[in-house]
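call fold(seq) -> tokens
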Amino acid sequence: MKKTFGWFRKIAMAEGVSFLLLLFVAMPLKYFANMPTAVKIMGSLHGVLFVAFVVLAWEVKGDNRKSFLWLLKAGLASLLPFGTFVMDKEWKKEEAMITVL
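ret:
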């Protein structure tokens, strides 16, 4: 369903941003400014978004008859910095195709 795919893309972007903030803001604050709370807060937020990403990826796979390879690519994108941003171009095309079908 297009609605599920739309939510998936939004959560993927939020998950990607939270990952970058965790890596490039919170982690340096923890190790260079002695502010471990930044990682606790950002890590928790990123964890929630990651779980939502996985759940929605599973739903998109099922709703749109995506392959297991599609799910693996989505999972890999979530583990690599900037991965969800790179994949969003492909996901946008896939979402548009749902409307056509």
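Helices lie at 2-32, 37-63, 68-79, 83-100.
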